[in-house]
Amino acid sequence: MDLDVLNMFVIAGGTLAIPILAFVASFLLWPSALIRIYYWYWRRALGMQVRYANYDDYQFCYSYRGRPGYRPSILMLHGFSAHKDMWLSIVKFLPKNLHLVCVDMPGHEGTTRSALDDYSIMGQAKRIHQFVECIKLNKRPFHLVGTSMGGNVAGVYAAQYPEDICSLTLICPAGLPSSTDSKFVKQLRELQESERIDRIPLIPSTPEEMADMLKLCSYVRFKVPQQILQGLVDVRIPHNDFYRKLFLEIVDEKSRHSLQENMGKIKAPTQVIWGKQDQVLDVSGANLLASAIPDCHVSILENCGHSVVVERPRKTANLMLEFLALLHSTGNSKKQA
């Protein structure tokens, strides 16, 4: 082999070795940093830009793609202890000409966290309304999407601020009573009886607890490497005290059934998506909503748990688009009539 060619391979190999070694070192030593880089890269790849909005001395962090157009903007509210990037798996399957906004919920990620703030479901709905007014999202009625805790907030928002909303999607929403206790509710009862309520299954502090939480939330069994589990825990641990405070707030009597108390006031066409094998919030909540909201469309996903957005992102995105298309065609028919 020619010496120059050999030197080229040596140099190329050395050049490639540096990022490979850096990746391996990050994976082994700083898995949490790798997870942050992963989300940063995914946001860039999907064209989502991060921005901040201020309401007095309160700061909201959000990501967005596209601009308001003839179709309604879409605002997405994530669940307990998550963040705006959890929606990226759905964003991947949504058209790029849609105006999408994903906000960090009060106290989460880049949005202000204050010990004086009201983290009840009603308090969070009021904060989201402030955010909507900050970015002038309600110049025209928009489509609101929420999952789990975010679904509870979204439903209450639709009831309290009906003029802002043209339609609503609730994905496995919290805030409803159930005739059947889910596995999660049973675990909470056992913890209360043993006076170990600080060991909330949705607030892991070890890789093993993180693995248990993933099993609880997902019907699909993801094979997650130990280092990634450690990284996921490392990212959450600094926030666990806040998560405990928030959890106790949203399961308190003031917020526990907020969606049920407000669902009769929801006038916007509503879509409900629920995983049939949800072990956190029982799927019977879908029928409760369908019986209380006049224009309600229910989709139950087989072989799917609580983490619908992660387990069935393409299906969820398609259902949302079909729902919006149906409303658009219905609206046109009424105008022609």
TrEMBL record:
UniProt cross-references to SUPFAM superfamilies, sorted A to Z: alpha/beta-Hydrolases
Subcellular location: Late endosome membrane; Lysosome membrane; Mitochondrion membrane
Residue stretches spanning the membrane: 6-39
Listed GO biological process terms: acylglycerol catabolic process
Origin organism lineage: Eukaryota, Metazoa, Chordata, Craniata, Vertebrata
InterPro entries recorded: AB_hydrolase_1 (IPR000073), AB_hydrolase_fold (IPR029058), AB_hydrolase_sf (IPR050266)
Biological role stated in the UniProt entry: Lipase that preferentially hydrolysis medium-chain saturated monoacylglycerols including 2-arachidonoylglycerol. Through 2-arachidonoylglycerol degradation may regulate endocannabinoid signaling pathways. Also has a lysophosphatidyl lipase activity with a preference for lysophosphatidylglycerol among other lysophospholipids. Also able to degrade bis(monoacylglycero)phosphate (BMP) and constitutes the major enzyme for BMP catabolism.
Record protein name field: acylglycerol lipase
Similarity comment text for this entry: Belongs to the AB hydrolase superfamily.
Its membrane topology: Single-pass type II membrane protein
Keywords (A to Z) from UniProt: Endosome, Hydrolase, Lipid metabolism, Lysosome, Membrane, Mitochondrion, Signal-anchor, Transmembrane, Transmembrane helix
EC category: hydrolase
